[in-house]
Amino acid sequence: MLGTKLPSPQAPKSPRFAIIVAGGTGTRMGADRPKQFLELQGEPVLLHTLRRFAAPALSVQRLVLVLPADQLEVWQELHARYAPELRHEVVTGGATRWASVRQGLLHLGAQTEGLVAVHDGVRPLTPLSVIENTYAAAEQHGAAIAAVPPKDSVRGLSATGSYALDRSRLRLVQTPQCFELGLLRRAYQMPELPTFTDDASVVEDLHPIQLVQGDYGNIKITTPDDLLLAEALLRRG
Ligand SMILES: Nc1ccn([C@@H]2O[C@H](COP(=O)(O)OP(=O)(O)OP(=O)(O)O)[C@@H](O)[C@H]2O)c(=O)n1
Ligand SMILES: C[C@](O)(CO)[C@H](O)COP(=O)(O)O
Questions:
Q1: What are phi and psi of 230, to 5 degrees?
Q2: Which molecular function GO terms apply here (predicted)?
Q3: Count H helices, E strands: the chain?
Q4: Residue 79 and residue 85: Cα distance in Å, rounded?
């Protein structure tokens, strides 16, 4: 899956950066450590994710990794053991995903122009083609995110029960989410709201969001079942 063929062999026009957010604790996984450090085919989940963004074909110039403050030493040891050659910059995260993205953006302080991808450290199976297409769409439209149509029927909840929703008008949102750097900076200068569940929800009052075809295999490792599924998808190749 890592080697998925990329559509454009040309060098990107704008410099590309990536913020990989891995500052969470993984409460829903209920493991003995944050889920980004659990093993997937013999390597930490997070390493699979980083390797994808470090792929030369994507031309990402700076890879910023956001980690929980109390896990910096753990990561230092894992990095040295599994992938000492992998170049990246580590920053400490915050109490929420929003706060962690903000820390990553602050770290990119000196950069004025370019495109930045924000990606969950716990999405280790993202095809390179999805990453490339999302950067390319952000280059054209300013803001682009990966998403897929729901496969199940969907219902909304009401005071008295529930009602059918038209799933053809819905999309399930994934990462990466790519933006012009200046736009994402402006969006993250506003105060945090409880409705912010991803970066698109932070940006959308400032700029329209372009949807890019995601991938059903681009799962977020959230509960133990997801880890089993990720193992199976990686075995399939
Ligand atoms: N304070 C936080 C919270 C989340 N994240 C990151 O945001 C991504 C998506 O979040 P989620 O899957 O909810 O991770 P956790 O917050 O770790 O999980 P949980 O909600 O089960 O505790 C993950 O890569 C997670 O590490 C982060 O960087 N900083
Ligand atoms: C950003 C995200 O992965 C898009 O689907 C998702 O919103 C993260 O949600 P979580 O509540 O942090 O799991």
A1: -60, -40
A2: 2-C-methyl-D-erythritol 4-phosphate cytidylyltransferase activity
A3: 7, 11
A4: 9
pTM score over 0.80: yes
Q: Which atom of ligand 2 is nearest to the CA of 197?
A: 7
Name which CATH class applies to 16-236. Answer: alpha beta
CA of 122 relative to ligand 2 center, distance in Å: 10
Domains of the chain by residue range: 16-236
pLDDT in tens, 154-210: 999 999 999 999 999 999 999 999 999 999 999 999 999 999 999 999 999 999 999
> Is residue 173 within 6 Å of ligand 2 at its C-beta?
yes
* Residues 106-151 pLDDT 10s: 999 877 899 999 999 999 999 999 999 999 999 999 999 999 999 9
- Using CB distances shorter than 6 Å, the residues near ligand 1 are 21-28, 36, 66, 93-97, 100, 120-122, 220, 222
Residue 63: name the closest of 77, 43, 81, 83 by CA.
83
**How far does the centroid of ligand 2 lie from the alpha carbon of residue 10, in Å?**
31
